[in-house]
Amino acid sequence: xxxKNDIVIYHHTGACRIxxxxxxxxxxxxxxxxxxxxxxxxxxQTIHVFIHSQAFMRPLISLAEAKSxxxxxxxxxATACIAKDARQNAALYTKILETHDxxxxxxLVKTLYLKTEQFRKYGKPIPQTxxxxxxxxxxxxxxxxxxxxxxxxxxxxDMVYAALCA
Length: 166
What we know:
5 helices; alpha+beta; five-stranded antiparallel sheet
């Protein structure tokens, strides 16, 4: 069980601070406890999650894990099996994001970033599927790294992409 002021990764919202653990005032059942989550880097409203819910929630990666991922991002393999069909790609990207696995999501960021750079290089428009999933993966990964490393998501973004371009 998490405690008040813990920062967790919640579903697709990303990094959230637990601001309260209590029953919801608008319910009659005062025995049901809820986490009140405040997203740190998104415009999403306050989220209430039943503490025994099956909704995905996990602690942040450690500082050592964050530093290791950033040091070894160049060696991190890109996501395999990228298809030419947008629907197949969307299904693969969704599957990766739904794992909530930090390293797999970082691999997805790397893959989609390199893919969009190839489109730019050849003067082609970047497919909406890639744009959409890159933004989602960036929000998830950069937000978590920002909290762990005490920086902003924009600073993390610059750091990650500089390492990929080196």
